[in-house]
Amino acid sequence: MPSFPGGLHAGLVVPLDRPNVDTDAIFPKQYGRSTARTGYGPIVFDSWRYLDPGDLDSDHSKRRPNPDFVLNRADLRGATVLLARQNFGCGSSREHAVWALRDYGFRAVLAPSFGDIFRQNCPLNGVAALVLAPAAIDRLFALAQASALRVDIDVNACEVRAGADASRFALTAREHLLLTEDTDWIGATLAQRARIEGFERERLARQPWLDRRLPG
């Protein structure tokens, strides 16, 4: 099922007020030996989320949660939107980081900037990595710190709304398709079949010698 059916998502916001959050902080390396794509929700932000260390054999339900970490706030349980600062998802190209966010329940991350590979991985796994202006991020943090904040995200109108506050973002056609349809990267590419065929016809007319077969 797509993350944004009809292009819309409404959710509770977790304000993670830290810049330069790297993929090892999102998904620590000791869990990388697993090749599964699911089951990582309990260990997202592991070293900040718990007071004791964990590994693949840990029973995370018995670990001690860090009461000072925002993800452990009782009023933010069930949140599906992560609000972050600049350069979120920097560091390695670890796709597990996106899997962990998705498995926790996040469907969107709002930040002024992202690590490039992390941002590319997000829509492929049903997570919208949305770049908002720094001033818009500041406003949302102020609202989230005052009380639990809910936002409405419209990927058709490319807008995030928090009450009367509205912020714009940009989204490519491929990203929109990945978020609103039950498809993958190959499906998103095949959706451009008409453009691909048009390019092939134009190329053949311009460079016909490239299609000449060698004798024998």
TrEMBL record:
Q: Which UniProt keywords apply?
A: Amino-acid biosynthesis, Branched-chain amino acid biosynthesis, Leucine biosynthesis, Lyase
Domain called Aconitase A/isopropylmalate dehydratase small subunit swivel: residue spans: 10-132
Gene Ontology cellular component annotations, sorted alphabetically: 3-isopropylmalate dehydratase complex
Q: Name one GO molecular function term.
A: 3-isopropylmalate dehydratase activity
Q: Which portions of this protein are annotated as coiled-coil regions?
A: none
Q: What is its EC number?
A: 4.2.1.33
**SUPFAM superfamilies per record:** LeuD/IlvD-like (SSF52016)
Pathway listed? Amino-acid biosynthesis; L-leucine biosynthesis; L-leucine from 3-methyl-2-oxobutanoate: step 2/4
Q: What class of enzyme is it?
A: lyase
Reaction equations catalysed: (2R,3S)-3-isopropylmalate = (2S)-2-isopropylmalate
Q: Which GO terms describe its biological process?
A: L-leucine biosynthetic process
Domain of life of the organism encoding this protein: Bacteria
Task: Write down the CDD domains for this protein, in alphabetical order.
Answer: IPMI_Swivel
What is annotated about its quaternary structure and interactions?
Answer: Heterodimer of LeuC and LeuD.
Matches recorded under PANTHER family: 3-ISOPROPYLMALATE DEHYDRATASE SMALL SUBUNIT (PTHR43345:SF5), 3-ISOPROPYLMALATE DEHYDRATASE SMALL SUBUNIT 2-RELATED-RELATED (PTHR43345)
Functional note: Catalyzes the isomerization between 2-isopropylmalate and 3-isopropylmalate, via the formation of 2-isopropylmaleate.
Q: Which family does it belong to?
A: Belongs to the LeuD family. LeuD type 1 subfamily.
Give the protein's recorded name: 3-isopropylmalate dehydratase
Gene that produces this protein: leuD
